[in-house]
Amino acid sequence: MKTLEGTTVGILGGGQLGRMDILAGRRLGLRFCVYEPAPGATASRVADEAFAHGYEDTEALARFAAAVDVATLEFENVPRAAAELVAAQVPLRPNPHALSVCQHRSREKAFLAEHGFPCAPFEVVGDATALPEALARVGTPAVVKTAAFGYDGKGQVKVPDLEALDPDAIWAALGRPHGAVVERWIHHQGEVSVVCARGVDGKTACFPMAENVHVDHILHMSIVPARVPEAVREEGEALAVRLAEALDVVGLLAVELFVTDAGLLVNEMAPRPHNSGHYTLEGCAVSQFEQHMRAVVGLPLGDPSLLTPVVMVNLLGELWADGEPDFAGLLADPSVALHLYDKGAAKKGRKMGHFTVRDRELGAAVTRAEAAFLRLKG
Ligand SMILES: Nc1ncnc2c1ncn2[C@@H]1O[C@H](COP(=O)(O)OP(=O)(O)O)[C@@H](O)[C@H]1O
Ligand SMILES: [Mg+2]
């Protein structure tokens, strides 16, 4: 790439992750072009240029690729064909193969198994009739997940046991997918995640492990550093680095992990910034978004060290049920940092923003985050 200043980064996807990529990249003098089918998306509105066309519009994708020096994505469900079309014109970081593995649960599981990464016992199924046998092999309790397009627990059905099993009802509840994965339900001690950055030169840097609290299958809170033994943190970082290398990712790879007696199990991977990495905006010397931008344009990675214990809390659409939440009340604690994505309609479960709280003492940060969250409700 010729010069840094004025380099145009293309982003496939127009959500809050792209928006925060752009806000971080602007400081480096980068320019941005967003490709997002929905007009007026949150990232498109802070970009220099935006393409509002479908992912099947090959002509628009070619014009987008011609307008940028390098491209990345912030949305996992960008169709592989669209990613490949862009990658044929400019470097796409992450590469289309890594995207294709991470966007499809059966490919993701097959990849993990092939490369010997620890994960829950699973079976890939093509239709409802294959469910009983797959469930019997995997063992119950189990969870059935659509192979593609699931997020925030959508497209998942938990199966407690094999009694009164109704495969057709399960398939219908999944939205009649083209394929699904049956997974053993893991009685874990907790969920953690590691965001690993990998540069063009292959150098890696992991952000500190986050401990994640989910409510209704959606991330509610990340607590950092994760309250696990040092050996578990090291194990998680080593797994994230090996995964990023095996997928040849340039940019970020976020890895969700279950903590069990037998060690860590890989739940999911995402080749992009991750909700559980939002704490890095205030918590680390370099944020996940700046780190991603550095990797994408071929700069050396920054220092991912934690500056202070930090807690991140998501703001979901239901908080808006009775009008705008009490943001003045939230910010009564001066160590609270508020991020709103300006996404418009506040639907239940929709990620509208987040906040972080820092404290020299982690327990105090958690207490203050919980108190701040209650103040939002007025
Ligand atoms: N096999 C499993 N055992 C235990 N909990 C699970 C399992 N699979 C999913 N979950 C729970 O559901 C949440 C969402 O599932 P996940 O596979 O991460 O899908 P997504 O984040 O794409 O909705 C997980 O974070 C975890 O809390
Ligand atoms: Mg997940």
Describe the structure.
- The chain folds into three domains: 8-92, Rossmann fold (3-Layer(aba) Sandwich); 121-184, ATP-grasp fold, A domain (Dna Ligase, domain 1); 190-376, 2-Layer Sandwich (D-amino Acid Aminotransferase, Chain A, domain 1).
- It is 29% helix and 26% strand.
- The protein has helices spanning 16-26, 58-67, 80-87, 96-102, 105-114, 131-138, 167-173, 230-246, 280-283, 288-296, 327-330, 362-376; strands at 8-12, 31-35, 49-51, 70-73, 122-125, 142-146, 156-159, 180-184, 190-198, 204-206, 210-215, 218-224, 251-260, 263-270, 310-316, 336-340, 351-358.
- The model has no long low-confidence stretch (mean pLDDT 96).
- Magnesium ion is lined by residues 256, 268.
- Adenosine-5'-diphosphate binds at residues 120, 143, 150-153, 183, 185-186, 191, 214, 217, 256, 267-268.
Task: List strands and helices in order, with pairings.
Blueprint: E1 8-12, H1 16-26, E2 31-35, E3 49-51, H2 58-67, E4 70-73, H3 80-87, H4 96-102, H5 105-114, E5 122-125, H6 131-138, E6 142-146, E7 156-159, H7 167-173, E8 180-184, E9 190-198, E10 204-206, E11 210-215, E12 218-224, H8 230-246, E13 251-260, E14 263-270, H9 280-283, H10 288-296, E15 310-316, H11 327-330, E16 336-340, E17 351-358, H12 362-376
Helix pairs in contact: 1-10, 2-3, 3-4
Bound molecules: adenosine-5'-diphosphate (ADP) and magnesium ion.
Q: Could you give a quick summary of the protein structure above?
A:
It contains 12 helices and 17 strands. It has 378 residues and is an alpha+beta fold.
